[in-house]
Amino acid sequence: MRKDIHPSYGPVVFRDRAANCAFLTRSTMTSEKTVEWEDGNTYPVVDVEISNVSHPFYTGTARVLDTAGRVERFERRYGRSGERG
């Protein structure tokens, strides 16, 4: 493996602003902002908009779409243009 071509890999705090949650992991991402973690050490912090804590797939709060209602609403609005044939 060649030296000095890979980014540094170290501890980083990712903070989910939507869910007010943070987790410490290792990453190649860097940031000028820092935060003091629970262990008393200071780590770079990266703010993210969504994580597994706030994403609907992981939380189970996904909305169910009413596709039948959408089709009926479309047909009411625009009507049928006649029978196919």
User: Order of strands across the widest beta sheet?
Assistant: 2-1-4-3
What is the straight-line distance between the termini?
68 Å
Number of strands: 4
- Overall, the morphology is elongated
- Sheet having the most strands: 4 strands, mixed
Q: Calculate the mean pLDDT score and round it.
A: 81
Ranges where pLDDT stays below 50 over 5 or more residues in a row are: none
Instruction: Specify the structural class.
Output: alpha+beta
β-sheet strand percentage: 25-35%
SS field, number of helical segments: 2
Query: If you compute it from the alpha carbons, what radius of gyration comes out, rounded to the nearest whole angstrom?
Result: 24 Å
**Helix content class:** 10-25%
The SSE order reads EEEEHH
